Structure formats: structure tokens, C-alpha cells
Amino acid sequence: MNDETTLSFEDAFKRLEDIVARLEAGDLSLDESLALYEQGQRLARHCSQLLDAAELRVQQLNEDGSLSPLYE
């Protein structure tokens, strides 16, 4: 699958971890490294957006009283 934006957070994060491991291994060509780096950037952005959306959802739930605060 080439469209990272359809992945769940868990799947995107796992792919990102795999990319980091491959890049750290250091056995890729420059072109392969750049392609993986670009894909990793897209995955990191997608994960960040998913986390932001989850945080907003929790904040909204807290505001209307549907979810008790974690810390009081």
C-alpha cells in the first residue's frame, strides 16, 4: 500500500519503525535511503495528525463531561 494516509496509527508507526531500522543499518544506496526518508516523513506526519485528532477528541469529551479527567 503506497497511501500512508489510510493506515491506522499502529500500522503507520510500525512501518516508521521498520524504515528507521533499515536506514540505521546503513546498507542502502543513496537513492533508496532518500526514498525511505521521504516515506518516513509522510508516515511521521500522518502519525502526528492522528495523535492530534485523538488529543482533540479527548479534550472535547472532557469539556462536555462525558469523560472524567485523568488528573484532578
What does this structure look like?
With 72 residues, this protein is mostly helical. The chain has a single domain, classed as Helix Hairpins. The chain contains 2 helices and no strands. The longest helix is centred in the middle third of the chain and has 35 residues. The relative contact order is 0.13. The mean pLDDT is 88.
Quick structural gist:
By secondary structure, the protein is an all-alpha fold. It has one domain: Helix Hairpins (Orthogonal Bundle), CATH 1.10.287.
Query: What is the ordering of alpha helices and beta strands?
Result: HH
The proportion of residues forming helix, as a percent range, comes to: over 70%
Indicate the proportion of strand residues: under 5%
CATH architecture call: Orthogonal Bundle
Radius of gyration: 17 Å
Top CATH class: Mainly Alpha
**Helix/sheet category:** mainly alpha
Task: Note the overall shape.
Answer: elongated
Spell out the blueprint of helices and strands.
Layout: H1 9-25, H2 30-64
Helix pairs in contact: 1-2
Feature tags:
single chain, 2 helices, elongated, Helix Hairpins, 72 residues, mainly alpha
